[in-house]
Specification:
This protein is mainly α and about 230 residues long. Keywords: Membrane, Transmembrane, Transmembrane helix. This is PHTF1 factor. InterPro entries: PHTF1/2 (IPR039775). It comes from Steatornis caripensis.
């Protein structure tokens, strides 16, 4: 019993350590995205002590797009994706086991100690996945903030009125900003957890196995057949 307890403790510590590393990576990505969104604002750039430049030249737009692409790829990618997908698979497996136990006998489900352990693990994993989903969504919003480009376009229109002799040059920059806005809208997609949508195998497991198990549990508890 003591050896079994120590093994569980070590495995739990290792697993949650990897989860903390993945969360730290997501937090760093969010910090980079937050600071990147403040580059074109003089007040915010001064507040956070970061470089500041306006998108009033084609060279500046090129630097802005290159920096955006570099920051999105910075840091560990595949290793963190493997950790997140492993956590997602574990959560799916525990959910399937719990559903099977409920179908076997929902009245005696909570009487077993290992079922309580499964529920605690499932709750911890779901909270962690929700945390990652929240950080990933906020990061994506920072990088997909098209209002920055729209603000720069308005500033260019105002400069055209004040400096008609530079209208041709400013029109070129404005056209590049419009193309950049369309490009970002085409390339950017809503944030998705790696394990659920980007891996077809995990998606099929979720759709076929887990939803079928949940459907069986709901049908057993409610007393009539239901399809999910």
């Amino acid at each position: 019993s003591a050896i079994n307890f120590l093994e569980r403790l070590c495995l739990t510590w290792m697993f949650f350590f990897m989860m903390c590393v993945a969360e730290r990576t997501y937090k760093q990505r969010f910090l980079f995205a937050k600071l990147f969104s403040h580059i074109t604002s003089a007040r915010k750039a001064r507040k956070y002590e970061i470089p500041h430049f306006r998108l009033k030249k084609v060279e500046n737009i090129k630097i802005w797009l290159s920096l955006r692409s570099y920051l999105k790829r910075r840091g560990p990618q595949r290793s963190v994706d493997v950790v997140v997908s492993s956590i997602f698979l574990l959560a799916l497996s525990i959910a399937f086991i719990c559903c099977a136990q409920v179908l076997k006998g929902h009245k005696t489900f909570l009487s077993a100690a290992y079922n309580w352990e499964f529920l605690i693990w499932e709750a911890a994993l779901l909270l962690f996945l929700l945390r990652l989903a929240s950080l990933g969504s906020e990061t994506n919003k920072k990088y997909s903030n098209i209002s920055i480009l729209l603000t720069e376009q308005i500033n260019l229109y105002l400069k055209m009125e004040k400096k008609p002799n530079k209208k041709e040059q400013l029109s070129l920059v404005n056209n590049v900003l419009k193309l950049s806005t369309k490009l970002l809208k085409e390339l950017d997609t809503p944030f998705r957890l790696y394990g659920l949508t980007m891996n077809p195998l995990i998606y099929n497991i979720t759709r076929v196995v887990i939803l079928s198990a949940v459907s069986g549990v709901v049908s057993d508890l409610l007393g009539f057949n239901i399809r999910v």
